[in-house]
Amino acid sequence: MGPTRSSSSSRGEICLPLQVDFTTEKFEIRSQKRKVTTEELKCLDEFSKEGEEFMEGFDEGNVSTSLRFIDPLWKLKRFLNIGSQARLKKSIDTIDKFVYRLITTKRKELAKEQNTAVRDDILSRFLVESEKDPEKMNDKYLRDIILSFMIAGKDTTAASLSWFLYMLCKNPLVQEKIVQEIRDVTSSHERTTDVTGFVESIDEEALDQMQYLHAALSETLRLYPAVPVDTRCAENDDVLPDGYRVKRGDNVYYISYAMGRMSYIWGQDAEEFKPERWLKDGVFQPESPFKFISFHAGPRICLGKDFAYRQMKIVSMALLHFFRFKMADEKRNVSYKRMLTLHIEGGLHLHAIPRTST
Ligand code: HEM
């Protein structure tokens, strides 16, 4: 995480102002890239012009695509190449250019390098596989795989971490309970400044023991599901469980954002942030995915669910052990941005106060 500048607050605390939505996404891509390709994506470390354009194009593409859900004129705009659909076309061109370059570079790297470690990441594996069926597994196919992984794994986890920090600022007691759980589970001294040693102490066992953190993350995802609306198209005429008839070709939407807040699903306190609702005697109690719909349910349930929890747990443990977070401006109205994934409008502005100084 890269704080932009530091300052001292009136109480003598050192505050690191952070624009979290942005920085956590940068973090997210960094870890994501290891799965997609081992090549250094310059945009992430050095903010190359090309990389920045890619990130902007990726987000703009997300916004303009989501407008198709609500804009009855989108086809006309696409035909005339104006407004949101002209922006989408430009974004797609930028994204394609970047991803195709990545594939070409990786292919050259693989041809040169016989070292099998280079073939360890997902893109390399798909490239090796594509040699068996180059017609079907062409560059367009590989591009779609890369982008699917990015949209599935990057935006979702990063946005969820932002909402999670927001919830912790609004619920400081929950924040302190998690910090206590981290100390209990890792047996780390509360005043340690050894970041590397601390992060190394987060092993499988420690992650499994973080039951309260797991509950707080689930509670965040219930109220702020990273995929707020999901849709399916009926392949055949069908009847839904409540008797409603759908015709072949009908689009059916469910709104996870609303479902997470419905009192007849979650009880009268549905609007409240209560990690305790997920716990029995301190142990996390999973809910049916058809009730806790944030990862979707059924045969096409999110494949990265466990991975996402692990990532979010590791990052939040490292952050919360060393920093106390509070809103940079308590009065600021935090709202969401209309995109396919649920982001905080304008990012989340926080103060991170080192715990060693409190
Ligand atoms: C908080 C984090 C995450 C949330 C809330 C989330 C949510 C979802 C949802 C709602 C779907 C269903 C989308 C649809 O079919 O319309 C989905 C699918 C999927 N997710 Fe995630 N996801 C998260 C993280 C991840 C990560 C980190 C990965 C991979 C590294 C991942 C990989 C996938 C894949 C591959 C699918 C498609 C599964 C299929 O269609 O069979 N997700 N996710």
TrEMBL record:
**Annotated Gene Ontology MF terms?**
heme binding; iron ion binding; monooxygenase activity; oxidoreductase activity, acting on paired donors, with incorporation or reduction of molecular oxygen
Provide the GO biological process annotations. Answer: lipid metabolic process
For activity, the cofactor(s) needed are: heme
One Pfam family from the UniProt entry?
p450
Residues where heme binds: C302
Q: Which UniProt keywords apply?
A: Heme, Iron, Metal-binding, Monooxygenase, Oxidoreductase
The entry assigns this protein to a family as follows: Belongs to the cytochrome P450 family.
> What protein name is recorded for this chain?
BnaC04g04260D protein
According to its UniProt entry, this protein's organism is Brassica napus
Species classification: Eukaryota, Viridiplantae, Streptophyta, Embryophyta, Tracheophyta
